[in-house]
C-alpha cells in the first residue's frame, strides 16, 4: 500500500506556507516516500526576498544579546529533539543513523559557536596620526551586516551545512534565505522550526523548498541579495559566479582529497583513518579520502590492511545501529560512480575489492594502478571509491597530490617533523591534517580551499567575516 503524507510546509519569511505543487522526498535506500514539500515558484522567491528586505533591517537592529539568546534556544531545541532530527536525516539522505546522530550533535555545536561569536564581532581603533594628513583625527572601524544572504545548500550534510550558513548570518545581524537541496529539504525545515520555536522575529529566516531551475536563479541574480553562500559542485558554482553580479560570493566546491602515508607512519592509525575518511556517508563527502599515496616500503602492507578493513564494512539498512554505510543519494549517482570505476578498469586499473552496485547501493571500492588520464584520478568521485598509489618518496607524493585542479584538504601520516612541515608548505590546499586523514574538521576552524575547491572560508567566525563589511569612522578633533 502506498504511503500517504499530507506534506510539509515551507518557511517563508517566518510563516509556514503551502505550495500549489509538491515535490516528493524519497528514501534513497528503497525509494519509499518520506514526505512532500512545496515546489516554490519564482513568485514565491520574489515575495520572500521582498520580505527579507525588512527582515534585514530588523536583524541589524537586534541587540547582540538577543541574537545570542535566540541562537542558543534554537540549539537547545535541536538537542532536546536530537533523535527526531537524526531519524529525519537518516531517512531523506544517505547517512546511517549513527552518522546522522553525529551530524545533529555538530549542528548543535555550530549554533552554539555562532551564539558565542556574535559577541566577538569587533573592530579596532586606527592611529590616523601615522600620516601627516591624519594629525588631529581619531577613529576606528566596525563590522556591519551585509543585509540579505542567499544560501544554497547540498544534500550530504542536510542539517549542519545549513546551520553553518544560518547561524553566522543571524549572529552577524543579517536576514538569510535558504534554498536546500531538492532531495533533502526536510532537515533544513526542521532547522527553521528550531528558530521559530526560539522566537526569531519574522522575515529574518526563510527556507524555501523547490527546484533550482525554478527559484535558484531568482535568488542568485536579485540585486537585493548581497551575498550568495553556496556549497555544491564546480559546474553549478561557476554558473552562479556568472549570474550573481556585483555581490559577495562564498563557495565550497568539493575536492579530490589526497592522503600521504610515509614509511615511518603508524600504519594502523593511517589505515583506520583513511578507510573511515573514504567511506563516511558513502563517500559523499567533500573532505573524503580519494587518493592515497603510500611510500614504497609500506605500500603492500598498507594495501593489505586497507582492503581488509574495507571488506569488513557493513553496508545496508541505514536505520540499523550495525550499519557502517548506506546507499548513495540516488540510483543515478550510483550508476555514475559505477561508470567512473569501469572507465578506470578499462584503462588498466586493478580492482582490489568492491565494484558492485545494487540499485542506489555501491560497495566500498578500492582500486590500484589508476592511470592519470582517468576521471577518477582527476575529478571528485563523491562516492565510496579510494585509489591507492605507490610512490618512491615525499617529493613524488606532494607533486602528485598537487596535480589536480582541486585543493580543499590533505592528510599526511609521518613521525618526521621536517616531512610534516614540508607538506604544510608545499601542499596546495586549504588545510593540512598531520597524522589524520583529509576527512577532519571542527566547526570552529576556517574551512575552504584553493583552485576549484572554492572561494572564501566557512567555519563560524570566518563565515561571519564573509557576511559582514567593514565601515571606517573618523573624527576630526577641534
TrEMBL record:
Positions of the Aldehyde dehydrogenase domain: 16-473
EC number of the protein: 1.2.1.97
Protein name: 3-sulfolactaldehyde dehydrogenase
InterPro entries found in the cross-reference section: Ald_DH/histidinol_DH (IPR016161), Ald_DH_C (IPR016163), Ald_DH_N (IPR016162), Aldehyde_DH_dom (IPR015590), ALDH-related_metabolic_enz (IPR051020)
Catalyses which reaction(s): (2S)-3-sulfolactaldehyde + NAD(+) + H2O = (2S)-3-sulfolactate + NADH + 2 H(+)
Gene source species: Planococcus rifietoensis
Function: Part of the sulfo-TAL (or sulfo-SFT) pathway, a D-sulfoquinovose degradation pathway that produces sulfolactate (SL). Catalyzes the oxidation of 3-sulfolactaldehyde (SLA) to sulfolactate (SL).
Domain of life, source organism: Bacteria
Enzyme class: oxidoreductase
Family: Belongs to the aldehyde dehydrogenase family.
Keywords associated with the record: Oxidoreductase
Entry-linked Pfam families: Aldedh
GO MF terms, alphabetically ordered: lactaldehyde dehydrogenase (NAD+) activity
Amino acid at each position: 500500500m502506498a504511503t500517504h503524507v499530507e506534506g510539509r510546509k515551507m518557511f517563508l519569511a517566518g510563516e509556514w506556507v503551502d505550495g500549489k505543487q509538491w515535490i516528493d522526498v524519497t528514501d534513497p535506500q528503497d525509494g519509499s516516500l518520506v514526505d512532500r514539500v512545496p515546489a516554490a515558484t519564482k513568485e514565491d522567491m520574489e515575495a520572500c526576498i521582498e520580505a527579507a528586505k525588512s527582515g534585514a533591517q530588523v536583524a541589524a537592529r537586534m541587540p547582540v544579546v538577543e541574537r545570542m539568546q535566540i541562537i542558543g534556544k534554537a540549539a537547545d531545541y535541536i538537542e532536546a529533539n536530537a533523535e527526531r532530527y537524526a531519524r529525519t536525516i537518516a531517512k531523506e539522505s544517505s547517512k546511517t543513523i549513527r552518522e546522522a546522530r553525529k551530524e545533529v550533535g555538530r549542528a548543535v555545536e555550530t549554533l552554539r559557536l555562532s551564539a558565542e561569536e556574535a559577541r566577538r564581532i569587533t573592530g579596532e581603533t586606527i592611529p590616523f596620526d601615522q600620516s601627516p594628513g591624519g594629525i588631529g583625527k581619531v577613529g576606528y572601524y566596525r563590522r556591519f551586516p551585509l543585509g540579505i544572504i542567499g544560501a544554497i545548500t547540498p544534500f550530504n550534510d542536510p542539517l549542519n551545512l545549513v546551520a553553518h550558513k544560518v547561524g553566522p548570518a543571524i549572529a552577524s545581524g543579517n536576514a538569510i534565505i535558504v534554498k536546500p537541496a531538492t532531495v533533502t529539504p526536510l532537515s533544513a525545515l526542521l532547522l527553521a522550526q528550531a528558530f521559530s520555536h526560539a522566537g526569531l522575529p519574522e522575515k529574518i529566516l526563510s527556507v524555501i523548498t523547490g527546484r533550482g531551475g525554478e527559484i535558484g536563479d531568482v535568488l542568485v541574480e536579485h540585486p537585493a541579495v548581497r551575498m550568495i553562500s553556496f556549497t555544491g559542485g564546480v559546474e553549478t558554482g561557476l554558473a552562479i559566479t556568472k549570474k550573481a553580479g556585483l555581490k559577495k560570493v562564498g563557495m565550497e566546491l568539493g575536492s579530490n582529497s589526497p592522503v600521504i602515508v610515509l614509511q615511518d607512519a603508524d600504519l594502523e592509525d593511517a589505515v583506520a583513518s583513511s578507510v573511515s575518511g573514504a567511506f563516511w556517508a558513502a563517500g559523499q563527502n567533500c573532505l573524503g579520502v580519494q587518493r592515497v599515496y603510500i611510500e614504497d616500503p609500506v605500500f603492500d602492507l598498507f594495501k593489505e590492511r586497507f582492503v581488509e578493513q574495507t571488506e569488513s564494512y557493513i553496508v545496508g539498512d541505514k536505520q540499523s545501529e550495525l550499519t557502517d554505510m548506506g546507499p548513495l543519494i540516488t540510483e543515478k549517482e550510483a550508476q555514475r560512480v559505477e561508470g567512473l570505476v569501469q572507465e578506470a578498469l578499462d584503462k588498466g586499473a586493478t580492482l582490489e575489492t568492491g565494484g558492485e552496485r545494487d540499485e542506489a547501493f555501491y560497495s566500498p571500492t578500492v582500486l590500484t594502478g589508476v592511470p592519470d588520464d582517468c576521471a577518477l584520478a582527476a575529478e571528485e568521485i563523491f562516492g565510496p571509491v579510494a585509489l591507492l598509489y605507490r610512490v618512491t618518496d615525499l617529493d613524488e607524493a606532494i607533486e602528485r597530490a598537487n596535480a589536480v585542479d582541486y585543493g580543499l584538504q590533505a592528510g599526511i601520516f609521518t613521525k618526521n617533523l621536517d616531512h610534516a612541515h614540508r607538506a604544510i608548505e608545499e601542499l596546495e590546499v586549504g588545510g593540512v591534517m598531520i597524522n589524520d586523514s583529509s576527512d577532519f574538521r571542527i566547526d570552529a576552524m576556517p574551512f575552504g580551499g584553493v583552485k576549484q575547491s572554492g572561494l572564501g572560508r566557512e567555519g563560524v567566525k570566518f563565515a561571519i567575516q564573509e557576511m559582514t563589511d567593514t565601515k571606517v569612522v573618523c573624527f576630526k578633533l577641534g
